[in-house]
Automatic annotation (TrEMBL):
The gene is grxC. CDD domains: GRX_GRXb_1_3_like. One of its GO terms (molecular function) is glutathione disulfide oxidoreductase activity. GO terms for biological process: cell redox homeostasis; cellular response to oxidative stress. GO terms for cellular component: cytoplasm. The lineage of its organism: Bacteria, Pseudomonadati, Pseudomonadota, Betaproteobacteria, Burkholderiales. PANTHER family: GLUTAREDOXIN 2, GLUTAREDOXIN-1-RELATED. The keyword ATP-binding does not apply. InterPro entries: GLR_AS (IPR011767), Glutaredoxin (IPR002109), Glutaredoxin_subgr (IPR014025), GRX_bact (IPR011900), Thioredoxin-like_sf (IPR036249). This is Glutaredoxin.
Length: 85
């Protein structure tokens, strides 16, 4: 199963929606990182993703983007192969 890392905020509806899709796909182990609580982690997220908003989702180290990007990837049929890797 793929390793999922998500920069996350508990109160973010987009974070929850992205997490919900992954859980629906059978992913139960999501490493959540909380950049709002840690300035160094926020810098890391921006360096890795080029973006300043959460969620930022990585599958096996590959940046797939935020919630809308994850949903679009799923609609195109590209999410399942990444998760199965």
């Amino acid at each position: 199963m793929a390793k999922i890392v998500m920069y996350f905020r508990d109160t973010c509806p987009y974070c929850r929606r992205a997490e919900g899709l992954l859980v629906k796909k059978g992913i139960t182990d999501i490493e959540k990182l909380y950049p709002d609580d840690d300035a160094d982690l926020k810098r890391e997220m921006i360096e890795r993703s080029g973006r300043t908003t959460v969620p930022q989702i990585f599958i096996d180290g590959k940046h797939v983007g935020g919630c809308d990007d994850l949903l679009a990837l799923d609609r195109r049929g590209g999410l399942d192969p990444l998760l199965a890797a």
